[in-house]
Specification:
The chain has 362 residues and is α+β, with helices and mostly antiparallel strands. It has 9 helices and 20 strands.
């Protein structure tokens, strides 16, 4: 089956975007280069087209109960205009997907899920929808831009009467943006650089994109590809589905206990509670390489004499620190006594040190 094209496909080509197949879409992996794009977001402002992400509306009778049942967090804490990070547990103690939950109004929620999991997530929610609650997949008609970086707010404020400075982290408002009505402006992101994500109908994609690029010109705004999105999130120690978290990953091991609220009695909470009480055998950690070499996904983590103690989930050369960093799972019994680990790269053991994430200060 051919990949789908984003509404802004031609705009990406115009900016020199190198397009690749990703989650069933043609996506820009980079434009001028990963390092340049990464530092643009850290130091100025960049815009990502992440319209491949999935959006579901859950509304009406039973909406609260359905969302509360399928996610790990407590949506009782939400109010109109509030966003929450969570994951959907599966029946074997792993993770169906991680996602954002938006409370639009009472009994109306929007779930934002990973592009590669749209079909799977929709089936999971539908199979658990025992009260015939209305579930609508709006992914195909919804565009999403992430405007990230220290000057993101200044750029966007020119285009909306919504007072962005009054918005707190993980809240959203609906309003007019770039002359377009009913745009959802969310103070969220996946970079740690600050900024906003905006949701709107595909029909308005070119208008909104062009206005952002024109307004951001004085700040040298740049389009940013998927590759820099990955290096930015890794510097912050954010999990990526398919790497740090999967259908087989225990969320407690992944450090997601903070969004695991057992009072809500979500799907399979008993198993995860048992795992938390019994303690975990491995733990997701960040590490910095002490020698030359970049750790890649699925490389083995070993002790000093070559015994396997874990596995790498992500690794890259950090553009901000100019040194190799990574994340991976390591046996907890080893971590109690050691901070130094070794990554097997081309049959050699390369030294690394376990460190706290994020790797850089926000």
């Amino acid at each position: 089956m051919d990949d789908k094209k984003l509404s802004l496909h031609n705009a990406h080509l115009k900016f020199g975007g190198k397009m690749v197949s990703f989650a069933g879409y043609q996506m820009p992996i980079q434009y001028k280069g990963v390092k340049q794009e990464h530092l643009c977001v850290r130091n100025s402002v960049g815009v990502f087209d992440v319209s491949h992400m999935g959006e579901f509306l859950i509304k009406g009778k039973g909406a609260f109960d359905l969302v509360q049942k399928v996610i790990s967090n407590d949506i009782e804490l939400l109010y109109d205009g509030k966003v929450q990070y969570a994951y959907m547990p599966n029946l074997k103690g792993g993770i169906v997907d991680d996602l954002l939950v938006y409370r639009i109004e009472q009994d109306v929620y929007m779930l934002v899920v990973n592009a590669a999991n749209i079909k799977k997530d929709l089936e999971w929610i539908t199979n658990n929808n025992t009260n015939n609650t209305e579930v609508i997949d709006i992914s195909e008609k919804t565009s999403l831009l992430a405007i990230q970086g220290p000057y993101a707010q200044e750029v966007l404020q020119y285009l909306t009467s919504v007072k962005l400075n009054d918005m707190s982290y993980y809240t959203f408002q609906k309003g007019e943006f770039a002359g377009v009505d009913n745009v959802l402006i969310s103070k969220t992101g996946y970079t740690g650089a600050g900024g906003f994500e905006i949701y709107f109908d595909n029909f308005n994609a070119e208008i909104i994109w062009n206005e952002i690029m024109i307004t951001g010109k004085k700040f040298d705004i740049q389009p940013i590809g998927l590759a820099a999105r990955d290096t930015l999130r890794l510097e912050m120690g954010f999990c990526l589905y398919g790497n740090e978290i999967t259908e087989d990953t225990c969320p407690i091991e992944a450090g997601l206990g903070w969004v695991t609220k057992f009072n809500t009695r979500f799907i399979n909470y008993e198993l995860l509670m048992q795992r938390k009480q019994n303690g975990i055998n491995r733990k997701l950690v960040g590490f910095k390489m002490l020698e030359k070499g970049i750790a890649r996904k699925d490389y083995l983590i070993k002790d000093s004499v070559g015994n396997p103690i874990g596995i790498v989930t992500s690794g890259t050369m950090s553009p901000s620190l100019n040194l190799p960093i990574g994340m991976g799972y390591v046996q907890t019994k080893y971590l109690k006594k050691n901070k130094n680990i070794f990554i097997e790269i081309r049959n050699k053991l390369i030294g690394a040190k376990v460190v706290k994430t994020p790797f850089i200060n926000k």
